[in-house]
Design brief:
29% of the residues lie in helices and 11% in strands. The protein is built from 2 helices and 2 strands, in the order αββα. It is globular.
Amino acid sequence: MLPTENRLRRREDFATAVRRGRRAGRPSLVVHFRSGATDPHAPGESAPPTRAGFVVSKAVGGAVVRNKVKRRLRHLMRDRVDLFPPVAW
């Protein structure tokens, strides 16, 4: 599973990714993402961890199916989250 510090959980974080981020899509998947820090970090502080979150449409299926898809996506992202740059939220 994707570690807690790498997961988007709050509605505001998802909204920020959609509003201020970029979008890439395919017929069955749309990805909204933010890359690059917008705020400089204070000297000596480490950059915040890269975070990912998933929203699955009801068009995919019922709640059980949607949750299964989200779990699988989080699992796939677990080994790849370090490949993405950190983002200042």
